[in-house]
Known about the structure:
Layout (H helix, E strand, L loop, with lengths): L2 E5 L2 E4 L4 E8 L7 E7 L6 E7 L4 E4 L7 E6 L4 E6 L8 E8 L9 E4 L3 E6 L1
Parallel strand pairs: 2-11
Antiparallel strand pairs: 1-3, 3-8, 4-5, 4-9, 5-6, 7-8, 9-10, 9-11
Amino acid sequence: QVQLVESGGGLVQAGGSLRLSCAASGRTFGTYVMAWFRQAPGKEREFVAIPYGPGGSTYYADSVKGRFTISRDNAKNTMYLQMNSLKPEDTAVYYCAAGRAARIVADAYDYWGQGTQVTVSS
């Protein structure tokens, strides 16, 4: 069982930055694949970023590539999402998720946080 709690969301102007955190409980944190998703009003939940593999590889949605950076600290049971050059279209509730496979579809993940709101004003 894994419990996830996101934090760090807020209101920011276009071009600004935010850093999201996802704190996980449970001693098995390191055995799970973690990822960030987001959901804008009226839209389906979409993949944002995932760290995977032992070499620290990462994969990003095209819409955030070059602006967002994902990282995780297994010693602190925490995953981060550094978001720079934010755009109004980044406005969404951001969720972290944990699962057993490195997939970019939401259905592949077993555990979800409650989400944190990110609002980017123009």
